[in-house]
Structures are given as structure tokens and as C-alpha cells.
Design a protein that fits this description.
Radius of gyration: 16 Å
Protein name: NAD(+) hydrolase ThsA Sir2/TIR-associating SLOG domain-containing protein
Pfam family, one: STALD
Distance between the termini: 49 Å
InterPro entries: ThsA_STALD
Amino acid sequence: MTHAARSRYFYNVRQDLISKANIMIIISGEKHGKDGSMVHSDTVMSEYTLGIEHGRFAIPVATFGGCSEIVHTKIAQDIKKRMHPYSALPNGLFAKLADKETSTDEMIETVFDIADWIVEHKLAASSRRSSIASDGGAHPFHSRTPSGVSLRGSERPRSSNHQTNKTSP
């Protein structure tokens, strides 16, 4: 397979996956550069951009650095301006994605809590463990901001006392 054919193949695979997913979980996003050092992955950033163009939601796990940290910063800036649906997330939940003191188990739970919140607020039509949409994921009230999608005015979800059903082992 030629390099061009391989690139087209993987581009088509990414297009297909993004078309089916409502939620993108971004972890790291680094690759080895030509000199062997770690650099930001242009592919991850293009996947993020493509996902946003399709109205998908990103959950960037910023503690790993790389592109996930860049995306987290962009979304955090929109949250501060109240220009992103995540503005209505329970206090501190999005920030936990960048907290290096958060344990692996807490990080996984945080990702699922945000995914659940997206589904509960009907921003994505998928279940907790599956991000494959039944309706393509597009909703008529979505509009884009530099970091992702946001809701217009009165359609912004209201913050609620989000409580996670946690059970002890």
C-alpha cells in the first residue's frame, strides 16, 4: 500500500468513526517527530476539528498533555465566557480533566460523568458506554464556537445538582 493510499484509508476510517460518535474522548495527542522528540499530533487536531464540524462533543483528558491539553484550554476559555454547553456542568467537573492529582479511577469516572451529563441534557443521543448515535448526533440548536459547539440563549442547559450514582464495591 502506498503512503498516499494508506493516508486516504485512515482518513476515511476517521471520517466514518466521527460520523458515528457523538462524543470524542481525547487522550494525549502526541507523536514522535522527525527528530524523535514528542510533538503534538496534527492528526488528532484535525480529528478534533472534524468532530466539531460534525457537532460532536470533546472530552479532553488534559492531564496527559499534548493535544488534549490544547483542546481543554480552548474549551475552558469558552466556559469562562459562558459560550459552551459545558458552562452548565456541575462546578469543577471539567477542571478535573486537567487536575494532575486526580487518580486514574477518578479520571475515568469524571469522563463518564461528563458523557452522562451530555446524554442527560440531550446534547447527544447515546448511552453511557456507547457513543454511537441513533440520529447522527446533530441537533438543530447547536452552533459552533472556537472550541466546539454551544447552545443559543435560552436553550442553554441549566445547571443541576448533578449526583452520580456511585456504589461501593
